[in-house]
Amino acid sequence: MIKEKLFFHCKNYLQKRKNLLEQRKNELQLALTSETKSSAGDKHETGRAMIQIEREKLGNQLLALELEVQKLRSLKNHHNTGIVSLGSVVHTNNGNYYIALAAESCDIEIHKYYCISPISPIGKLLLGKKAKEYIKFNSTISMIIEIL
Questions:
Q1: CA dist list (Å): 93 to 18, 24, 148
Q2: So where are the chain's domains?
Q3: What is the DSSP string of 17-70?
Q4: Helix (H) or strand (E) holding 138
Q5: Tens-place pLDDT, residues 69-111
């Protein structure tokens, strides 16, 4: 139940990001088509080149976002193995984590969950650990209470 809610929270987060990038893409396309030829030809060409560079950056961001969506899809039916891995929900005495992708934190029932990437500093510390093991992060020692 908790894992499903966290999965959909991350899915919605990625959809919001995609919507913003698509909106920006449309704005850039409009700017490119409405760029009128001025008497200063160099200024016109510079403006078009800057818009094109922004479109390329945006294309790269959309591609990276699609990879995150694919990675998240692979976690939909994640099964608990008792070891922290991609897709695990980890309860510690100092916080609760969903190992999937970097997203906004969310509140489910009475607990706050941090959606983190497995390559984040704390994600790296948690991967491969079992319940009752400890991690040390920023001078704070946390015990893993439960892995879902």
A1: 34, 41, 15
A2: 2-73, 89-147
A3: HHHHHHHHHHHHHHHHHH-PPPS-HHHHHHHHHHHHHHHHHHHHHHHHHHHHHH
A4: none
A5: 999 999 988 888 899 999 999 999 999 999 999 999 999 999 9
